[in-house]
User: Fold these one by one.
Assistant:
Number 1:
Amino acid sequence: MQPKHPLVMLIVASLSAGCAVGPDYVRPTMPVMESYLGQEAVEQRHAAANADIINWWEGFGDPQLTRFITSALEKNLDLAQASARVDQARAGLGAANAALLPAGNISGQAARAYQSAETPLGQVLSSMPNFDRYGNSYETNVGTIWELDIFGGLRRGREAAFAEFQASEAGVAATRLSVAAQTAEIYISIRGLQARLDVIRRQVQTQQELLSTINLLYDNGLAAELQVRQVEGALAQVRTSVPLLEMGLDAAMNSLDVMLGTPPGTHRAELTEPRAIPVASKIVGMGAPGDLLRRRPDLIMAERRLAASNARIGAAIGEYYPKLSLSGLIGSASSVSSGNLFSSGASQAAGVLGLRWRLFDFGRIDAQIDQLKGQEAEMLAAYRLAVLRAAEDVENAFSVLINREEQADILAGGVKSLSRAREVSFTAYRTGVVSLIEVLQADENLLRASDLQVQAQTTSAQAAVAAFKALGGGWQPDSELR
C-alpha cells in the first residue's frame, strides 16, 4: 500500500533517493612529473643489497638498527598519541552514525506528596469529604525521537566524520613512517659520531707518537724546543674535538632512548661498542611521482581533511531547510496505587511530528557557510602545497644521496693518498729533507679528509633514509587505511 499523505510521501521519497544538499566532493587533480629528476642516477647506484620499500630498514643489513626500529614502532609515545587520536575520531564517527538513527529512552517515577491545609488549594480541598492530605503518583514511559534527514545535512556530517577518521588513520601511518625514519637517522648519527671519534683518537695517538719522537730528539739535542711546542699545540688542537663529539654522541644516545619510549641511558650499554656506519641499500620499486598521492600518508591525510571540509559545507547548507522529527511515547500513569499502573485504564500514548526551521536566521547560516568555504579553500591550498613539497623531498633526498656517496668515494681515495703522504713526510723529516711543519700539515690534511669521509658516509646513509621516507615507504597503504 502506497502512502497517501503528501508529507509522508515527501519523507519517503527523500530518504529513498539518498540526496544530500551541498557540493559533492571531487578529488582534486594534481599535475606531476612522469619521473623524478634524480631517478635514473639513483637506480644506477651500486649497492650490496636491494631494499623492499615497505621494510626498507632491513636493507641496511644492520640487525641492531632493525631491532631498534621495531621497538620504536611498538613503544614510541608520539605513535601512541596518534593512535589515541584515531580512537577519538572513531568515537566522533560513531556519534555521527548515531545521529541518523532514532533515539529512545525509558523513564519512570513514583512520588508521594503531602498537601498543606493552610494554602488556598489546601483550604478548598480540606472542605471536601474524604479529603486525604497524602497523594501518590506512579508513571513509566518509553519514548523515542527520530530526526528525519530529508535534505541530507546529517549525512554530510557523517561524511565529514568519516573523512576525519580516515585522516586520523593516515596520521598514524605518517607518524609511524616518521618514527622509523627518525630512529634510523639517530642510529646512523650515533655510528657516524663514533667513527669520527675513532678518527680523532687515532690522530691523537699519531700526534702523541710524533711528540714522543720529537721529545727524544730534543733530549739528545737534535731538535729545537720550538718543534716540541709546535707538536704539543697541534696535539691539543686535535684533542679539543673529542669533548664536542662526545657531547653530540651523548645527546644522540639520549634521543634514541626517548624515541624508544625509555628513559635516557637505557640502551647506552648496547651502543657503547662502535660499529660500522650502515650502508644504504639500493632503492627499488620507487614508482613515479604520481604514486606519492596514494603512498605518502601525509598526503592522504591532507586529502581526507579536504574531503571533510567539503562535507561540512553541505552540513551547513542543510540548516537552510526545515528539520522534521518524529517522536512517540507509550507508557502508563496512575495516582491510585502502583498495582493499577499497568492496567488498561492507566495506559497513555502520544505521537508528535516536530518541525524546526531557522527561517529568520539565514544571515548566521550564510556567515557559517562562507567560513567553511574559506576553510575548504585553505585545505585545498594545503593539499596542493603538500604534494609539491613531497616531490621536493624526494628530489632533495636523491640529490644528497648521489652527491654524498660520490664525495665519500672521492675522499676514500684522498685518504689513502694523504696517509701515504704523511708516512713519506715523516720519513723525510727524520732524514732532514723537510721540516716539521710539513709533517704537521700532512697530519692536519689527513685528519680533515678522514673526518669529511666519515661525515659523507653518515649523510649519504641518512639521505637514503630520507628518500625512503619521502617515497612513502614503511607501511602498507592497502591494508592500514580503510
Note: Residues 362-430 form the longest helix (69 residues).
Number 2:
Amino acid sequence: MQTIVRVGVDLAKNVLQVHAVDAQGKTITNRAIQRSKFLEWCVQLPARCLVVMEACGGAHHWCRHLIRMGFDARMIAAALVSPYRMQGKSGKNDANDAAAICEAASRPQMRFVQVKTLDQQGMLCVHRLREGFKEERTACINRIRGLLAEFGIVLAQSPRVLRAHLHDILEDASNEVAGTARIALQRAFMHWQELDEHIHWCEQRITAHNKQDEQVQRAASIKGLGPLTASAIVATVGDFKQFKNGAQFAAWLGLTPRQHSSGGKSNLGGVTKRGDSYLRSLLVQGAKAAVLTGKHNQDPISQWAIALRQRSGWQKAVVALANKNARILWALMVHERPYEAAHISTRPTQPLFAGA
C-alpha cells in the first residue's frame, strides 16, 4: 500500500471500485470496496496520495472527507474520463471506469473540478428545489387546465387568468363540472398554493444570500444578472481564479461557438452548451431582458447589444451579451472591482521583446 501514488475511484451507492497504481504506473490493486469501509481502506494509503473520482453525486462529500484526512483528493468531469477507457464504449464497467479515472488523472494537462464547500452545496440545494417546485407548479396548472377542458371550460393560457376564474368555476352550479371533479380540482388548487409557498421560501433564502454575500452583490450589479443568477453562479463556481481568463469561464459555461476547423479554415457553429445548463439558461434569460431594454440605456454595452441585434439578429445578440456578461463577471470577481456600466475596456500594452 505504501508504494501507491495514485488511486482512481468509481463511485456508486453501495460499492466503490478502486484502481491504485505506483510511480511507474503499475497496477497495485483493482478491487471493489463496501461504502462503509472505503475510508478505512484509504487510511492505509501514504500521505498526500492522489485520490481521484468522477464529478458525480456524492463526489464532493468524499473529496471533503479525504482532504481532511490529508490526501490530495480531486474530481474529473465524466466527459474527460471516457477517452481513457481502454476498452472503449463496449467495455464499460466499474473496474474499467476506475482504471480510466486513474489514467486520466496522470495527464499533465488534465482539468479538475473544484471541490465545493458545504455553504455552496447548501445554497445550490435551494436553487435545485426552486427549479423542481417550478416544474411541479407548471405541471399542476396544466393538469387543472386539462381537467377543466373535459367539461368544456377553456381559459386563456395564463396562470393569472386561471387563478382568477377557478374559484368562480368551482362555485358555479350551472356549469357541467361533476361534483367529484369539483372536489378534485379544489385539491389541485390547494397543491398549487402550497407550491407557491415553497417557491416563495426558496426566493427568501436567495434574497438573504444576496444580502449576506459581497460576491453575489457585485455580480447582481451587472446588467442582465439579477440576484437569482448571481446567487446561482457564486454558489456553483466559488473561486473564480480557477479560470485563466474570462474567455475560459465563458467556454466553461458553454457560451462559445462549437468548432469544426481543419487545414487553417475556421468553421464555427452554434454554442457548445457545455457546463451547467441551469447557469447558462439564467445568463441567456437575463441577456434577453437586457437586450429588450437596451434601447432605453445609453451605456456602451447596451448600445453595443442594440447594434449587434440590428446587424446579426436577436438570438446572436442575446448569446453574445450572455458571453460578454460572463467575461465581465469573471473580471469583477478576480480583480474585486465594482461594476461600471460606462467602463470601456482597453487592451493592455505589452513590450515587443521580453525584458524591454
Note: The longest helix spans residues 179-212.
Number 3:
Amino acid sequence: MALFDKANCQAAILAINILGWLLTMVCMGQANWRVWYMESSPKPPWGLAYVGMWKVCTYQPDSPQTRPIACHRYTYRDTYLPMDIRISQNFLLASSLLGLLGKWLMVMGLRRVYAGQLQKDTTCNLFLVSRILSIVAGSFIFIAVLCNYYTVKNEEGIHFPPSFHIPFRPERQDIGSAVYLAIVAGFLMLLSGLFTISFQLPPKSQMNPQVSQV
C-alpha cells in the first residue's frame, strides 16, 4: 500500500476515533445510566429516577420523557456516592483525556505525512502512541460499563440525601440508554486503535530520490 493511501486510511480511522470520543462525552453527561422505578414511594411525584455518573434526575412516573422534576449534580465532596460511581467517573474522565491526546498525536502524524516531513522514528511513534491511547481509552469506557452493569444486576442502592426524596434502593432498576451509547463509544475507540495502520516508511533514498544528472 502506497504511503499516501495509508495516510488516507489513517484519516478515515481518525474520523471513527473522533466519533467515539464525541459519544463518550455525550454519554458522560447523561443521567440515564440506571433507571430506578419507585412505584410504591410515599411521595407520588418521585416515581422514577435516572441515576447517572454525574447527576441524578427524578421524573413523574407517567411521563418519563418530559422535563425532569429535579436534577442534582454530584461533586467530589459528596460522601454518599458509592465506590462504583467514583471509579466510573475517574475511568470516563481518563478515557476522554486519553482519547483527546490520542487524536492530537494522530493529527500530528498525518500532518507530517501529507507535508512530506517524514522522520521514521518520530512519525511512526506518533501513530503507535495514538493507537495505544485509543485502546486504553476504549478499555476504560468498558470498565465503567461493567461497573454499572454489576451494580444494576445486584440491585445495589445509594444513600442519597433526604432532600432528594429518593429511597436507598428502588423496587426495581434497569440499565439506561446511556450505557448502550457508552458501549458504542468504547467499541469505536477500540476499533480505531486496533485497526490503526502501522506505518512503515520507505528507505530514506526512496523518500528523497536523487535526480540523475545527464
Note: Confidence is low (pLDDT under 50) at residues 199-214.
Number 4:
Amino acid sequence: EVYYAGAIQRPGSNSDFQLVDERIVAKKPERLTFSEAAALPLTTLTAYEALTDRLGLTFDAKSNLKKTILIIGAAGGVGSIATQLANHAGLTVIGTASRDETIDWAKEHGAHHTINHHDAFRPQLEALGYKYVDYIFCLNATDQHFETMVDVIAPQGKICSIVETNQKLDLSALQQKSATFVWEFMFTRPLFATDDMIRQHEILTQVAAWIEEHTLETTVKQTLIGMNADNLKEAHRLVESGKTIGKIVVEHH
C-alpha cells in the first residue's frame, strides 16, 4: 500500500491504473484509509519542499523558535498541511483566513494567529506585535499580494509562492531588503527527472512516520464516493470555486 503525487507528464488520478516512478512513491501511513492518505502527497510535498528546499528551513524547532512565517491561504489544501509542518518546525505561524470556518480550520491545523487577506496586512500584523515576518508562503493570488509581501517581509527574509501570475512582478522592490523570492512547483523533480528525485520518496516516508505518531493529521475535508464523471466534475467545480477548505477526495467504491 503506497501513496504518491505522481508526475504531470503521465496520466493522472482520473485513471483506473497508473504507472509511477518508484523514486516518488512511499509506503502509505498504516493508520490512514486510502482516501485520507490520498489527500496528502501533492500538498504535503509542495509544503515540505517550500519550507525546506526553497525557504531553507529545517525541522529543528529550537533554531526556529523566534522566527515567524505568514501563510497566505492557510485553510486551503496546501495551507492545511503547511501550517502543521511550520508549527512542527517551531515557527510562529500566522495564517490568512477570512471566514469563521476557515479561521477555525487554520487554527486547528497549526496556525497560532490568523489575519484577514481581504484587509491590509501591516495593521493586522502590528496588532499582533510583528513589524515584519521572516518568511512568507504565498498560496493565493501572487500578483495581488506582491506589494503587501514586499512591505511586510523582513530584511533578508524569504518569500515562496506556488501561484503563477499573468502580471509582471517588480523584483527590484525586494532589492533594498536583500529579500529572496522563489517559486515552488512540486512536479519539478519528476518532470525533469532531477538527480534528487528520490527526495520525494524520503519526504513522504518522513511524513508517514509523523502521521503514525499523530504529529501530523490528514487534511481531507470532503469525500465524493464513486469514481465517475459526475463526481470528477463536481470535485473540479469545488476546487475551482476558490473556497475549498482542506482537501477533496474522489474515492473509488
Note: The domain at 2-43+188-251 is CATH 3.90.180.10 (Quinone Oxidoreductase; Chain A, domain 1).
